[in-house]
Write a structure and sequence with these properties.
Elements: H1 2-7, H2 16-36, H3 40-44, E1 51-55, H4 63-81, H5 86-113, E2 115-119, E3 122-127, E4 133-138, E5 142-148, H6 151-156, E6 158-165, E7 170-177, H7 179-189
Antiparallel strand pairs: 1-2, 2-3, 3-4, 5-6, 6-7
Length: 190
C-alpha cells in the first residue's frame, strides 16, 4: 500500500502564497536548528560586533584520564603475560579503565561547556551547561592582563590568565589554551 501511494504522481496546484509560506516555514525550521547548535558567544553578539579570538580550556585536562588509561593498558598486558596473578591484574585493569572513563567525562564536559572569546568590544567567558556562569568585561574597563605559566604550561601552551578591570573586579581563567595569544588579542583590541 505504501509503495503504491509513493509511486503515484502527486498533482498539487500551489499558489504563489502557498509556496512562499512553505519556503518561510522551511527557513524557520532551518534557522531554529542552526540557532540550537549556535554557541553561547555567537548568540549574544551585538550587531556589528566581531570575534577577534576564541579559545577554551586546554586539552591538558585530559591528562589524568590518559594516564589512567595507560595504567589500565599496562595492567592488561602484565595480566595477560602472568597467568598466576591474572585475576588481580584483571581487577586492576577494570578499576583503572573505569577511573579513566570517570576522569575523561568531566574533563570533556568542562572543555565542551567553556567558551572564551575576545571581541572588538568585550571579553566573554562562559562556563557550565545547566548551571551557567558568565563573565563579560568591556574593553574600556580592562586595566591589565596577567599570564601565569608553569614549565609544563610553556611546553604544552596553557596557563592561567587573570584579567583585571577598573576598580577591584578581576577574572581568573584557569588552564586556558594559548594564554599569550589571548593576552595579545585583548591588548590589540583595546
Amino acid at each position: 500500500m505504501l509503495l503504491s501511494v509513493a509511486t503515484r504522481p502527486l498533482h498539487l496546484s500551489l499558489t504563489k502564497a502557498h509556496s512562499e509560506q512553505f519556503v518561510d516555514a522551511a527557513l524557520h525550521v532551518h534557522n531554529f536548528n542552526r540557532n540550537a547548535m549556535m554557541s553561547y558567544v555567537d548568540s549574544i553578539l551585538e550587531p556589528g560586533e566581531h570575534i577577534r579570538y576564541r579559545t577554551t580550556v586546554s586539552s591538558t585536562v585530559y591528562f589524568p584520564a590518559l594516564l589512567l588509561a595507560v595504567f589500565a593498558f599496562g595492567f592488561l598486558i602484565v595480566g595477560a603475560n602472568h597467568r598466576d596473578t591474572e585475576e588481580f591484574f584483571w581487577f586492576l585493569t577494570i578499576v583503572s579503565a573505569i577511573a579513566a572513563i570517570g576522569a575523561f567525562i568531566p574533563a570533556w564536559f568542562r572543555r565542551l561547556t567553556t567558551e572564551i572569546a575576545v571581541t572588538d568590544r568585550r571579553i566573554i567567558l562562559k562556563r557550565g551547561f545547566i548551571r551557567r556562569s558568565t563573565i563579560e568585561m568591556n574593553m574600556q574597563k580592562v586595566e591589565s592582563i596577567d599570564v601565569d605559566q608553569t614549565l609544563a604550561g610553556r611546553l604544552f601552551n596553557y596557563g592561567n590568565v587573570t584579567i583585571r578591570g577598573t576598580g577591584s573586579s578581576f577574572a581568573t581563567l584557569r588552564l586556558i589554551d594559548s594564554p599569550l595569544k589571548l593576552r595579545t588579542s585583548v591588548t590589540a583590541a583595546r
